[in-house]
Design goal:
Order of helices and strands: HHHHHHHEEH
Number of domains: 1
Radius of gyration: 17 Å
Strand content: under 5%
């Protein structure tokens, strides 16, 4: 029986984080709206620009970890540490990818939509790599799993609820801060791209998952 290759698992899962982070940077650059889970840090970054998007991202994931503690009534769990580490790594990977794209100009709507669709692709592949790597754990997904287990609500329905709540909270905060529920000035956080990412990422995974599995799963065994 083949044994799991631990080093390969971590490399594959880390590659997944990198791709998802790059997808986040692409969505921000598209200015058509970012994924629901990235809406809160994006709005907060617009309000407090001295604090990076990545910093707000790991802070949000810290809140997700605390929510898990409350729901599970369990203060200590080794999974919390893995999620905390993943939050820091992912947050600053987002900052690095945003920096890499800092000089890229996206002006036409067609190019903005291309960036949005590329976000869907990068996110879909990245999430699958995280799943098959089974090393890093992002609290944004794990909190939905815990909520589903505690309440008995299906994961898919709980995930939709999380997305709606995050977008709603972000829109309210943006309205309070900027008088505009979609963003601030030329910087858009919630728009059609938000809906596209929420709906089409899962659909894209149905197409990309078999290919990702075929390429990467053989690397995870020795």
């Amino acid at each position: 029986m083949a044994k799991n290759n631990i080093a390969a698992r971590w490399l594959v899962a880390t590659l997944g984080l990198v791709l998802v982070a790059f997808g986040v940077a692409l969505s921000l650059k598209s200015n058509l709206g970012t994924a629901p889970v990235s809406c809160p840090p994006a709005v907060l970054n617009l309000q407090w620009t001295a604090i990076s998007f990545g910093t707000f991202t790991w802070m949000m994931h810290l809140v997700f970890i605390v929510l898990q503690m409350v729901m599970k009534r369990k203060v200590w769990d080794t999974h919390y540490l893995l999620q905390l580490a993943a939050a820091f790594v992912f947050g600053y990977l987002c900052d690095a990818c945003i920096w890499l794209l800092r000089n890229v100009e996206v002006t036409s709507y067609v190019m903005k939509m291309v960036f949005c669709l590329l976000t869907v692709l990068f996110t879909a592949v990245g999430i699958r790599l995280e799943v098959i790597g089974n090393a890093w754990m992002l609290a944004g997904e794990k909190v939905v799993v815990v909520f589903s287990e505690v309440t008995g609500i299906k994961f898919s329905n709980a995930k939709i609820g999380e997305d709606v709540l995050l977008v709603l909270v972000s829109a309210i905060f943006a309205w309070i801060c900027f008088g505009n529920p979609f963003g601030h000035g030329e910087h858009i956080v919630i728009r059609e791209g938000t809906l596209i990412l929420a709906v089409f990422t899962g659909l894209c995974m149905k197409l990309t998952d078999p290919l990702v599995d075929k390429v990467f799963k053989p690397l995870l065994h020795e």
